[in-house]
Amino acid sequence: MAKIVVFGASGKAGREIADVAQARGHEVTRIGRDPGVQAAAEVAAGHDVAVSTVADLSRDPAEFYTEAARALVASGAGRIIVVGIYTLLETAPGVRVIDGPDFPAEHKPFCLGHAAGVEVLAASDADWLVMSPAGNFGGTSTGRYRVSAVDPADELTYEDFALAVVDEIDRPTHRHRQIGIASA
Question: Which segments does the entry list as coiled coil (predicted)?
């Protein structure tokens, strides 16, 4: 079994991921609120997997997500899984949702902040994966999920998303990229 730290374990996604991992027999360290970037690196050190489900809406998104990604990389955790956002998934090769002509300008800073964090991961030697809902969170849990291209009509429950994340911990299939997840 793996030693896993879940940052953001007091939120919906983080709590579900930590619960599923613990139910499968993993040793889970739950961090509810952001302990600070330097402290996060120290907490994650020695863990097989670090899962990040955090957001800090009081800070500049690019600053926050790059610092968080750097801390995760610096921690030396064996694997890093970050909960991402569907707006960074591609609708066509090289074209993300955020790049569309009708994407609301007021949402771009937050999305580009997430993208900056992904760029830090991509430039590192870490074993990382960003997992995002392919559409919106909602619906009724099916107990199943699928890897999916972005589709705003798709729904994903927090329960089904947690299954996908912990399955990826148990049987790593995707590395060094972002994938979309939808309930099946």
Answer: none
